[in-house]
Write a structure and sequence with these properties.
The complex is a heterotrimer.
Chain A: E1 8-14, E2 17-23, H1 29-36, E3 55-58, E4 61-64, E5 77-79, H2 92-99, H3 109-122, H4 128-134, H5 146-168
Helix pairs in contact in A: 2-5
Chain B: H1 15-20, E1 35-41, E2 47-54, E3 64-66, E4 91-92, E5 98-104, H2 107-116, E6 117-123, H3 130-134, E7 146-154, E8 166-174, E9 186-192, E10 196-201, H4 206-217, E11 224-228, H5 241-256, E12 260-263, H6 266-272, E13 279-287, E14 293-303, H7 311-321, E15 330-338, H8 353-371, H9 375-380, H10 402-412, H11 415-425, E16 431-444, H12 450-454, E17 457-462, E18 468-471, H13 481-493, E19 500-502, H14 521-542, H15 552-566, E20 569-574, E21 583-584, E22 589-590, E23 595-608, E24 613-624, H16 631-651, E25 656-657, E26 660-661, E27 680-685, H17 702-719, E28 725-726, H18 730-741
Parallel strand pairs in B: 1-12, 8-28, 10-11, 14-15, 18-19, 24-27
Antiparallel strand pairs in B: 1-5, 2-4, 2-6, 3-5, 7-15, 8-13, 9-10, 9-12, 13-14, 16-23, 17-18, 17-20, 21-22, 23-24, 25-26
Helix pairs in contact in B: 4-5, 7-8, 8-17, 13-14, 16-17
Chain C: E1 9-11, H1 16-25, E2 31-33, H2 39-44, E3 52-55, E4 65-67, E5 71-75, H3 80-85, H4 87-92, H5 94-101, H6 106-111, H7 114-120, H8 128-133, E6 137-142, E7 145-150, E8 155-157, E9 160-161, E10 168-175, E11 184-191, E12 199-210, E13 213-222, E14 229-230, H9 232-238, H10 245-258, H11 269-288
Helix pairs in contact in C: 9-10, 10-11
The chains are: A alpha+beta, B alpha+beta, C alpha+beta.
Chain lengths: 169, 742, 289
């Protein structure tokens, strides 16, 4: 076997906190998050960038963390599902998923919620087509997506009305 | 007392954990000193193992290595019978059959090691199709390759042909389907001779794993512990297979003295675990010119793969559902499950019924066409009514109104208008649209005396704070077990659902309420939850600690007093088989299921004739289910099931090469994305079933039965193509379109 | 994860000269690694045979979209998301924006780069047919200089490219003169499902109709040959012709002969051939309307 390569030290921001870790340069960011940073919310569903269960935000962009090598996380600003809620206050999308059946077995849910949050940040008033496209990279085997759409629409209404009341205040 | 929570959409009990990413699935859990485990598998479909070679360049002395010789008890994964080895010893009977287990702390080195093991074997001729297996090209299992066969007779089929105005025949096939739960299979084990074996993992049936490990290790029941971790989807794929992966992890733990975790990646999961049984059904139907069914002769075969596993039970359900919700006076069903050299096929939502119902519902549309009457009219003239018998001669005592369901479904989907209009519009343009339906039933619970045999138990315990702990082996895997049980118990006691705790399924802590399968959890086990809660309440009433009307505080105070006096406040509810259900196992007739859900599904499709791509444009699902315990969860079950049915009908094609699945990647095995599902409109009717909790019947598998045939019938309407096999891939449909227009 | 991670190395040179210098000094030892959407899949499957990579993901010189009077230059590291979001590209080169929108899902589009996709040289890639139709050029750079190459000369065989071991793709250049402002643009990818799908057949085409005759026609296809294919014979047949059923018939049979689709686990040669000619017909129908 060839001479093993050395690990590299990588510094980045995860959920608002500075972190520093050592990893093989081609280690998957997914594994670094799960195994070294204790952030097990992102999941491995396929290992090929198809299912989106590993979705995170990297510099504001939705990416599959199973396809990001650790070296390229250097200097990045990363958000995982653990960074979506505001301490104990759930994000509107999270709350909607609970009450509207957007989560069943829950394994796709962290990635799906990140995709939905990311979508609503880019399209505060998404059309149905925007929602379907925004979530097309996140596979769900339990729900048939219907209640995920309903949850996103509900969250969108909640967010719009709280923005309105913020403006009024 | 609290108002009723049954019938309300109580938010998912473990919802917060799931949406914050704090729910703990097996791969989120680690034990100190844990090793990773991996399985080395056969590449050949059948052969005799000559030698196992461990290649150079790997520090083998650092590895834990287990082969068949290292199994303390019996080398089998015990299920209905004990024919499936845990590790192949002398012979291999399917590709990906496990032969060697490896463990090491470094999971990357472990992969190198897995690649370095070579299994040398002398190949033997193998069999890959139902036809070759039945023809006995090779005998690969038992005396004749047949795991099980059934014969169902009602009336006198042979007498009916002479008086038929039409005799219609048809040949139907369904392919394998991968469950594709998004969380791959995984287990963590601890095992040693003095403490016994404990496993934690993704599974549906803790006591199935428990039994299998007990036999594998020759250890008594008390020395085996099985704990279900949060499970990311099952759909039947985690009914029997987890026993295998638990056995592997446990063997490595036993030998190494350390905890061992085995997690499959998607490639291994697709390659090695169970799939839906491929099927082949032949129909021969005698019918009058008015559309009255005189006789149905049905021949139904399932491909079971290399070992028996659950094939007899899948065959059973498929057989009983093969003639549908119709009152046909003469029926013969001959069925069998056969062996092939593929990884064993197994449970997948619907469990034999999606296969036989596809054939039936597609066939009846063809029968209607042969006679020249509308498909809906053909169904109406033959729907079963209360007091009549289905194919296995079960009298349907419960009220049933298929006509009403059909009316409603056709109205909601605008079926009749579309049936006419689309035919007219289709003559121009390259998009052909069509609409089709399926009418069907699904029996809830285990067949015949199965529930009696299971003898399920649920325990409950009240705490000093007035909370109720419910202990059952039924697992939550997204379908809502935790929430449903909470609602049932809460209503039984007049408490709020917050006061109910559903104990994590752990064989050390919960009794055996049977497997989480067969659409039985709400109806059968939920009733036991209700009974167990009532028993607690009764004890308090009997001691005079509680009056009929009480508050949550009263309840808590009563519990405290009872516990102070007696030490604990507990109950145990045991399944009682209704005395009026009789099943004749030998002749395969009688009361097959305690209750049926009834349904009519309608699919509207568009077909792009340039590419033969089929799109489902609209879907209406109407079903009668007894009682909807939680509307959001119930609708979620139907919607998710319909999406899986759309995959079964159109996208999910397993490509086989000599018993091996070659498209085992999510890129190449296609399930629907959010852009592939239509609006799915779900409607429920309720005729309460007296023996279900609040009248509920089972619904988990129902949607898989009717979705694919509704779509197939719609495609036939749209294009004039005679669909007889699924999945209807564009490649297959394009050729069929060319021949229709030629 | 089926690869032995400790055996893999990746370094991130700080800028393009540093990257090129390394490639020149040790040709063949280092391979460039952009967004990783192809390479990481191979790594996970245990199929990434090369071991040493240079991460070019952050190299500033390979980023950005420049609009000049006669050309639009797209840096090799431009992601699909950036392609989709660029106003001029969307307006003047709509097929490229369409192709970008149909590549994987949003997460893939955020990390997949045009340069990476081109270098990977899959015949099923979604953008190359649009690049061919728009007459794209590539600039390839090395420590010893740079050269321009028409994209049609870059992709030489199945997964084979005209790229030396010491070279990187720097940018893709699209001439703004072509396509003609009155040209019609057609793109259709037929995949395994509506989103996140590998292409079974893909056809990109532009043409202008002047006085009832076809002028300036460009047709390219993906997934029907070992490389992305320019349907030159079909173009030649159509050029200058009027939009009649008999011309369409001839064009269909020419295209059917010109392509070389195969059977694989996703689809069949028969299907691909049949659909390719149907897409051509659809393009033809669009021109007629």
């Amino acid at each position: 076997m060839p001479e093993p390569a050395h690990k590299v030290r990588v510094e980045c921001i995860v959920n608002g906190q500075s972190v520093s870790f050592e990893a093989f340069p081609l280690a998957r960011l997914l594994d670094v998050l799960r195994e070294q940073l204790g952030l097990t919310g992102a999941k491995e569903g396929c290992g090929e960038g198809e299912c989106g269960a590993c979705s995170i935000e990297l510099d504001g962009a939705l990416v599959n963390s199973c396809l990001v090598p650790a070296l390229q996380a250097a200097g990045a600003n990363i958000r995982t599902i653990e960074g979506v809620a505001n301490h104990d206050r759930l994000h509107a999308v999270q709350q909607a998923f609970i009450t509207h059946g957007g989560a069943q077995c829950g394994i796709c849910t962290p990635g799906m919620i990140l995709a939905a949050v990311n979508l609503l940040e880019r399209h505060p008033r998404p059309t149905e087509s925007d929602v379907r496209e925004g979530l097309a990279g996140n596979l769900c085997r339990c729900t048939g997506y219907i209640k995920i759409f309903e949850s996103v629409v509900e969250a969108c209404h909640d967010m719009t009305s709280s923005r309105k009341s913020e403006h009024r205040a | 007392m609290q108002t009723h929570i049954i019938g309300k959409s109580l938010p998912r009990k473990e919802g917060r954990e799931k949406v914050t990413g704090s729910a703990r699935y097996v791969d989120d859990i680690n034990f100190p000193g844990m090793l990773h485990g991996a399985t080395v598998r056969s590449s050949a479909p059948r052969g005799r193992i000559r030698a196992i070679h461990f290649g150079d360049g790997i520090p083998w002395n650092e590895f834990t290595i287990v082969t068949a010789k290292g199994i303390p008890g019996k080398n089998c994964i015990a299920l209905l019978i004990e024919d499936q080895p845990c590790l192949a010893a002398e012979f291999v009977n399917h590709p990906e059959e496990p032969v060697v287990l490896l463990a090491h702390a470094d999971k990357y080195l472990l992969e190198e090691a897995r690649r370095a093991v070579r299994i040398e074997l002398d190949p033997l001729p193998a069999v890959f199709t139902i036809e070759d297996s039945l023809a006995r090209k090779e005998i690969i299992w038992g005396a004749d390759n047949i795991f099980k066969s059934f014969r169902v007779e009602k009336g006198n089929v042979d007498s009916a042909w002479a008086s038929a105005d039409f005799i219609v025949e048809g040949d139907y096939e369904t392919g394998a389907q991968e469950q594709l739960y998004i969380e791959p299979q995984g287990m963590i084990a601890r095992a040693n001779p003095s403490d016994g074996v404990s496993v934690w993992g993704s599974l549906q049936c803790p006591y199935y794993v428990h039994k299998a490990l007990s036999i594998l290790f020759a250890l008594p029941k008390e020395k085996i512990r099985v704990v279900q971790t949060e499970t990311g989807g099952g759909f039947g794929g985690k009914e029997e297979y987890p026993s295998m992966i638990a056995a592997h992890a446990a063997l490595l733990a036993w030998k190494s003295g350390k905890p061992v975790k085995i997690i499959y990646d998607r490639a291994e999961d697709m390659a090695a675990t169970t799939k839906r049984h491929p099927s082949h059904t032949r129909h021969r139907t005698a019918v009058t010119r008015d559309g009255k069914l005189l006789a149905m002769e049905i021949d139904f075969s399932l491909d079971g793969g290399a070992y028996e596993t659950l094939s007899p039970v899948v065959l059973s359900r498929g057989t009983i559902h093969a003639a549908g919700p119709y009152n046909c006076p003469n029926v013969r069903i001959l069925s069998r499950a056969v062996a092939t050299n593929a990884p064993p096929h197994g449970a997948f939502r619907g469990f034999g019924a999606p296969q036989s119902v596809f054939a039936l519902e597609r066939h009846l549309d063809r029968v209607a066409q042969a006679i020249g009457i509308e498909p809906a009219e053909l169904r109406r003239r033959n729907f079963i009514h209360q007091g009549e018998t289905i194919a296995v001669s079960q009298v349907i005592h419960e009220p049933v109104n298929m006509d009403r369901l059909l009316d409603r479904a056709l109205e909601l989907s605008d079926y009749h208008a579309k049936r006419r209009r689309l035919a007219a519009e289709n003559s121009t343009g390259h998009i052909r649209r069509g609409i089709g339906f399926a009418s069907f039933l699904h029996g809830a619970g285990f067949t015949g005396s199965g529930e009696e045999y299971l003898a399920s138990e649920v325990a409950a315990e009240a705490t000093r704070e007035g909370r109720l702990r419910v202990m059952a082996a039924s697992t939550e895997m997204g379908q809502g077990t935790n929430t449903i049980f909470s609602q049932i118990a809460a209503d039984a006691l007049g408490l709020s659902a917050d006061q109910i705790e559903i104990v994590q399924p752990d064989t050390a802590a919960v009794p055996n309420s049977g497997p989480t399968v067969a659409s039985r959890t709400s109806m059968i086990v939920g009733k036991l939850v209700e009974n167990a809660a009532h028993e607690i309440q009764q004890k308090l009433f009997q001691e005079g600690l509680l009056t009929r009307e009480y508050s949550a505080q009263d309840f808590a105070a009563a519990c405290r007093r009872y516990i102070d006096a007696h030490g604990a406040l507990e109950s145990l509810a045991r399944y009682q088989h209704p005395g009026d259900l009789h099943w004749d196992d030998e002749h395969y007739r009688g009361d097959a299921y305690g209750a049926y859900a009834w349904a009519v599904y309608v699919a509207e499709v568009s077909v792009d004739t340039r590419t033969a791509e089929v799109r489902v444009e609209d879907f209406v699902a109407v079903q009668e289910v007894g009682k909807v315990i939680n509307p959001v969860l119930a609708a979620g079950q139907i919607e998710g099931g319909v999406a899986q049915g759309i995959g079964f009908a159109l996208y999910e094609n397993v490509v086989w090469q000599e018993g091996r699945m070659v498209n085992g990647q999510m890129t190449n095995y296609i399930m629907p994305t959010s852009m592939d599902v239509p609006p799915i409109r779900v409607f429920f009717e309720e005729i309460p079933y007296a023996r279900g909790p609040a009248g509920a019947k089972g619904i988990g598998e129902l949607p898989l039965d009717g979705t694919a045939p509704a779509i197939a019938n719609a495609i036939a309407h749209a294009t004039g193509v005679d669909i007889t096999r699924i999945p209807v891939t564009p490649e297959v449909l394009l050729e069929m379109l060319e021949s229709v227009h030629a | 994860m089926r690869s032995h991670l400790p055996s893999y190395e990746m370094q991130a040179p700080r800028d393009l000269p540093a990257a090129l210098e390394r490639l020149a000094r040790e040709p063949g030892v280092w391979k460039p690694f952009a967004g990783g959407t192809d390479l990481m899949v191979l790594l996970e499957a245990g199929k990434l045979s090369h071991r040493r990579f240079l991460s070019i993901w952050k190299l500033p010189e390979l980023q950005g979209i420049e609009v000049a009077a006669n050309h639009v230059s797209i840096g090799a590291l431009t992601t699909y998301t950036a392609v989709r979001g660029h106003e001029i590209l969307a307006r003047e080169f709509p097929l490229l924006a369409r192709a970008a929108a149909e590549t994987g899902g949003i997460a893939t589009q955020n990390r997949g780069t045009l340069g990476g996709n081109i270098a990977n040289a899959s015949p099923a890639a979604d953008s190359p047919p649009a690049l061919i139709v728009y007459g794209a050029d590539l600039e390839l750079v090395s420590a010893s200089g740079s050269r321009w190459l028409p994209y049609t000369e870059f992709h030489t065989g199945y997964k084979q490219v005209n790229l030396r071991p010491d070279e990187l793709i720097r940018r893709v250049r699209l001439p703004r003169a072509k396509p003609h402002p009155h040209a019609r643009h057609y793109y259709r990818k037929v995949g395994t499902r509506r989103a996140q799908a590998i292409s079974k057949v893909c056809l990109a085409a532009t043409a202008r109709v002047e006085n009832g005759r076809i002028a300036d026609v460009y047709i390219a296809l993906g997934s029907v040959a070992p490389t992305v294919l320019r349907a030159a014979e079909t173009e030649n047949l159509l050029r200058g012709q009027s939009l009649t059923p008999s011309i369409l018939r001839e064009a269909r049979s020419t295209l059917a002969r010109e392509i070389a689709p195969i059977d694989d686990m996703r689809s069949t040669a028969t299907y691909r051939r049949c659909v390719a000619v149907n897409l051509l017909a659809e393009f033809f129908e669009m021109l007629s309307s």
